[in-house]
Amino acid sequence: MKRHSQAAHIRLIVAAMAFLFMCTGESVPVAAASPASATGALPPLFISPHVDGYLPRSALSKFYTYDAAAPLDDEVRLLDSNEWFDHYEVSFQCEGETVYAHYLVPLSARSEPVPCVLALHAAFVTEEQFLPMAAHFAKHGLAVLLQSLPYHHRRSITPNVPMLDGTAFVMGGPERVRDNVRRAVVEARRALDWLATRQEVDHARISIAGASLGGIVSSICFKMDTRLASAALIATGSGLAGVVRSGTFKPLELARQVFVSDLVGWGDYGEVMAPVEPARLPDDHPRPVFMLNATADELMHYQEALDHFRSYSQATQVWCDSSHFLPAHAAQMITCDFLIRTLIPQAVGPALDAGGWHFAELVRQPIPGENRLWVDLEVSRGAGARAGAAGGSDGGRGGDSGGSRPLQHALGVPLLNKLTPMVVVSRATLDATGHGLDELAQLPAILYVTEDDSDDEYQAALAYFDAMELGGTPNPAVYRVNRVARVDRLTARGELGSVTYSITRSYPSFQELMRMLKLAIDIDTLKPIPTLPTISRGAWSTWVEPPTP
Questions:
Q1: CB contact set of 86 (below 8 Å; sequence gap of 6+)
Q2: Residue 383: which region, alpha, beta or left (left: phi > 0; alpha: psi -120 to 50)?
Q3: Residue 547 lies in a domain
Q4: Please, where are the H alpha helices in 454-548?
């Protein structure tokens, strides 16, 4: 965990120093800071209330204009396939540059067009870092075009120094950074041009999703291009200028000292960056927007996120008290739920086929004060119709239960960026012991609640856990809580070859069981997830009310 945290801190420091360079167009000696730094006093936050007004649509259209008729000269290469989707590598041309992307297409697209999500990653990440989220969407019936931003991955100017990947995006004076953002937006619109040529994509049902820098680019693209049906924005503020203006990360405070020292005029800087500040762009064509933000975000200050939220006519904003690195598993599940419901109006929620089971998901509304995302699962025997997840008549609910009643399960995902085990318990066991979920919910683990203690329902839980890739490599990865010890190794191994029962123990009381589980599942020994390592908060996050402006 410490190695991951140090790497994340170094990347943020590199980014902050790049912002200093961005603000001035040249290196800024630390010794030249204002007298405030000598006294230890910090310059005030440059929080700009949402009173600047929107930029004229005509000027924005001119700024973001591009040749949509230019040849794409695209190339598509199949990388691999699995039981849910085909994975391709895509490249196309945009204003003299080669743009690269991963393209995940559900197998259901072989019979009918499917909805699609154009996904844009955060800054300074590896090419594979956001693939798990793309795979999550694709397993639920959405095609995903995960596009690399300028100066990232194969387009990096420092390919041999991964730590610096993408920093060139924010290097240079404000005009250059502004033009880099425009370039990223135009490339995203060219991606929409490319998707318009694909027969497997339903061209009327395309959304955009982005995180951090990718969220800024996504929000601009959404406001500039009416082909997009909705937008999901994770850890996104009002723009790059807002990061410098309001970020609480220490090197960003140094950047503000540059402005206080009159080394750079803030007014001129703000005007130069205005066309790439999504909060300054009008929402002329209202469509659904989902925003997930953090009150303790060191880069995207909550006031900037509020300003951005107010610039939309049909936006929903959910808040968590985490750092900039929001809980990844919960983020991808709640985002997928929003995308499915906006792209497939008849759908109640996402659906997934795995291990001979059909899971129809209904994400519950986050409740302030809770530290989990809860998902209701309607579970049916048989594959179900994957087309239901991609727009079938049942809207992703019901599936093929083989004539039997669908099972009602529930999943509780902790707001942690940790590789956690899963605890499987039935409502029957909880009722028999006289205990609810409150005690088990204290564990830093995924909770899967079945109806009863049958091996059949347990295997459904394992199939879901395995397909969703929610856990990591704790040992053991799954704990099964039963009233009576029942071990059917042959049945379990027949369903999932990776499942074994290594230890079976009996406990005289529920309290004794909880004592064991608390010792076995220690948050300090859990490893961070590889995609979004926690840096400022190693413990739980919770859902919270919107912050007061």
A1: 78, 80, 104, 105, 107
A2: alpha
A3: no
A4: 455-468, 489-495, 510-520
Cβ count near 62 (within 10 Å): 10
Pick the more confident residue, 311 or 530. Answer: 311
Backbone φ and ψ for 182, nearest 5 degrees, come out as: -60, -45
| pLDDT tens, position by position, 159-196 | 655 555 567 777 777 888 899 899 999 999 999 999 99
End-to-end CA distance of the chain: 34
Q: Residue 527: CB partners within 8 Å, gap ≥ 6?
A: 1, 418, 419, 472, 473
Q: CA 327, 332, 333: angle at the middle one, nearest 5?
A: 105
- The reply to whether 50 falls in a domain is yes
Domains identified in the chain, total number: 2
User: Are 172 and 166 a contacting pair, CB within 8 Å?
Assistant: no
Q: Are residues 330 and 413 in the same domain?
A: no
Cα–Cα distance between 403 and 393 in angstroms, integer? 18
> Looking at the structure, do residues 135 and 255 belong to the same domain, yes or no?
yes
pTM of the complete model: 0.84
Q: Are 219 and 331 in contact (CB under 8 A)?
A: no
Last residue of a domain, one of 340, 374, 397: 340
Residues 262-319 pLDDT 10s: 555 555 777 888 999 999 999 999 999 999 999 998 888 899 999 999 999 999 999 9
Query: Would you say the C-alpha torsion 525, 530, 535, 541 has a positive or negative sign?
Result: negative
Angstrom distance (rounded) from CA 281 to CA 278: 5
CA 347 to chain centre: 21
Q: Would you call 101 helix, strand, or coil by DSSP?
A: strand
Distance of CA 378 to the CA centre of its chain: 24
Query: Cα-atom radius of gyration of the chain, to the nearest Å?
Result: 24
Task: Give the residue numbers spanning the domain of 469.
Answer: 345-525
**Biggest CA-to-CA distance, the chain:** 77
Whole-number Å distance between alpha carbons of 234 and 228: 17
Question: Do residues 360 and 481 share a domain?
Answer: yes
